[in-house]
Amino acid sequence: MVSYINLLIFFCLVLLFAVGTLVLSKLVRYIDPNVNPVKVATYECGEDPVGDARIRFPVSFYLIALIFVLFDVEAAFLFPWILSLSKLGLLAFIEMLIFLTILFLGWFYAFKKGDLKWERQ
Amino acid sequence: MTFAESVSHGAILLGAIIGVVTYLTWVERKFSGRLQSRIGPYLVGRPHGWLQPIADALKLLSKEDITPTKTDRFLFNLAPIWVVVMSLLGFAFLPLTINWVLVNIDLGLLYFSAIGSLIVIGVFIAGWASNNKYALLSALRAAAQIVAYEVPLLLSLLVPAVLAGSLNFQDIILAQEKYWFILFPVVGQISGITFLLAALAEGNRIPFDLSEAESELVAGFNIEYSGMKFAYFYLGEYAHLLAVSILVSILFLGGPLGPLLSGGVWIALKTLIVFLIVLWIRWSFLRLRIDQMMMLNWKVLVPLTLGNLLVAGLWVSLSR
Predict the structure, then answer these.
(1) How distant is the Cα of B104 from the closest Cα of chain A, in angstroms?
(2) What is the ipTM of this complex?
(3) List of chain B residues whose C-beta atoms are within 8 Å of the C-beta of residue A26
(4) Per the CB < 8 Å rule, is B64 touching A96?
(5) How many angstroms separate the first and last alpha carbons of chain B?
(6) At residue B34, does pLDDT exceed 70?
C-alpha cells in the first residue's frame, strides 16, 4: 500500500513540474503586444491554409486498431499466465498453446483476407 | 517510508531524470557529430559545449508561445502536459540500484507498460487539437504505429518475465545473477532484439520515425507548438528513450549486477551503451515506408515474438 502512495506522490510531483514550468515560462517569455493574424494562422508551409483539417482518413487505421485489440486482450491474459507457469507447469503451457492457436487462426484469417496489407484496392 | 521521505525521494528521482534527459540531448548531438566527422556543439561551455543543454533549456523557456487561432485551446495545452507526465511517471517503477526503487510492487512490469502506452493518447490529442493537416496525418501515423508495435513490445517484454517467473523488476534482476537474459540461447537474443526494435517504433525513432518524417510532414504532430510546449514533446521523447534504455539494461543486461563497481554505476553504464546503440541505428538506417513498417510488424515481429514467448514458456514449464 505504501508503494502506491509513493506513486501518487510522484504523480503529483511530476504534474507540479509540468504545470509549474509552463507557468514559469509564461512569466519570463516575450509576449507580442500586437499579434499579426498571419502569425497565428494554421501553418501550411507559407501557403494560405486550404479547408479544414478535420479530413477523412484511410480505413486501414481502424483495422490496425481492431487487430490491436485482439492481440492486446491476449497479452492481458498472458500476464497472469506468466506468474503461474512455474507452479502449474506443462498443463498451463498446453492450455495457453490451445488459446494462442485459436487466436492465431484469427490472425491467419486477417492475413488471408488481406487486412494486414496497408494498401487496399 | 514517511511522507517527507516519499516526497524527497520522488523529488530526487524527478530531478535526476530531468538532469539526465537534458544531458542526453548533449550526448546525442555530440555523438551524432562524431559519427558524421563533425565535432558537434562546442561554443557554449568551451571546449566541449558542456553548457549547451542549459542554454537550450533557457532559450526554450523564454521563447514566445504561439497558439494558432484555429486550435482547440484546452486540448492544445493539455497534450504536452499529458505527454510529459506519462513519460516521466514510468520511471517510478524502475529500480536504479538493486534496492533503490521508488514504487516497489509485484506488478511493476505491467504498470510500466500500461503507463508507457498512455503516451500515444497525448500525441494524438496534440495532432487533433492543432487543426493542421500535417499534424493530423502525423498523429494518425503515430497512433497506428505505436498501437501496432505495442503487441511485439509486450510479447518480447514478457520473455524475461517468463524466465524469471515474476513481474517484479527486482526479482527479474536477481534472476539474472547466473547469466544475463540476453545470453539465454536463441530466446534471449530474439526477444532482446525485437524489444529494441519495437521500442524504437514506440519512441518514434529512426528507422521508424514516420510520424516526424521531415521531408513529407514538415515536423509532425508538434508542428504548431512553440516555446516550452514544444520542448515538452522533446522532453517526453527523450525521457521515453531513457526509460527504454534503462529497461533494456534491466531486463536483458542484468541491470545493476556486475563485479567491482557499485550497482548504480553498472546500470548507468549499460543504459548509456544501449542509448548509444540507438543513436548508432539512427545514423545507419533509412526511414521505412509506412506499409513496409506495418508489414514488418504484423507479418514478422508478431508471429516471431509470439513463438518466442511460447518457446520460453515451454522451457520454464519443463524445467520447474
Answers:
(1) 6
(2) 0.86
(3) 65
(4) no
(5) 36
(6) yes
Residue A1's pLDDT band (cuts 50, 70, 90): low
Distance CA B280, CA B207 (A): 11
Nearest to A40 by CA among B69, B76, B71, B74: B69
A79 and B135 within 8 Å at the Cβ level: the answer is no
Q: Where are the domains of chain B?
A: 1-62, 69-319
- Record: contact B64-A43, CB cut-off 8 A: no
**Contacts of residue B300 in chain A, CB cutoff 8 Å?**
none
Looking at the partner chain, which of A92, A107, A118 has a beta carbon nearest the beta carbon of B290? A118
Residues 181-220 of B with CB under 8 A from A: 218
CB spacing of A57 vs B290 below 8 angstroms = no
- pTM of the predicted structure, to 2 decimals: 0.89
Break chain A down into helix, strand, coil percent, rounded to 5: 65, 0, 35
Positive or negative torsion for Cα A24, A30, A32, A36: negative
pLDDT digit string (tens) for A44-97? 777 777 777 777 877 777 877 888 888 888 888 888 888 888 788 788 888 888
Q: Where are the domains of chain A?
A: 59-113
DSSP-derived secondary structure letter, B287:
P
Per residue in B151-189, pLDDT tens?
Answer: 888 889 888 888 888 888 888 888 888 888 888 888 888
Residue in the block written with cell 535526476: B16
pLDDT, one tens digit per residue, over B107-163 is 888 888 888 888 888 888 888 888 888 888 888 888 888 888 888 888 898 888 888
B314 CA to chain A: closest CA distance, Å?
Answer: 6
What is the count of residue pairs from A and B with beta carbons less than 8 Å apart? Answer: 207
